[in-house]
Amino acid sequence: MNIFYDAPEVFIHPQFVDFRKSINGLVGIVEAELARDAYTGTLFVFCNKAKDKLKILYWDKTGFALWYKRLEKQKFKWPTKLSSQEFELTSQQLSWLLSGYDVLGHEPLHYQSMI
């Protein structure tokens, strides 16, 4: 089930988040650390350190909504090797993340010569 098919943008916060934080704490991260406007309908995805829980925060024009998913036996393929404070996902990549796939794929290689 993909309930986020119509999201304008999707950003993940690559650092792990203390999941005792709820809506107000996550909005604080969006505004302070990501320097983004939380009131746009953009989805903001957060993961816990154990990588078995995700929270998705978004504004739905009447208030904030917080979606929560907990895996019972597996781990999310959370992209931890990012140099930036945030990373934008497509709707397809979000669907892959929620389904257990690696959203970053292979790291690009850069060669200067074959010899």
Automatic annotation (TrEMBL):
- One Pfam family assigned to this protein is TnpB_IS66
PANTHER family in alphabetical order: BLR8292 PROTEIN, PTHR36455
Protein name, as recorded: IS66 family insertion sequence element accessory protein TnpB
Domain of life, per lineage: Bacteria
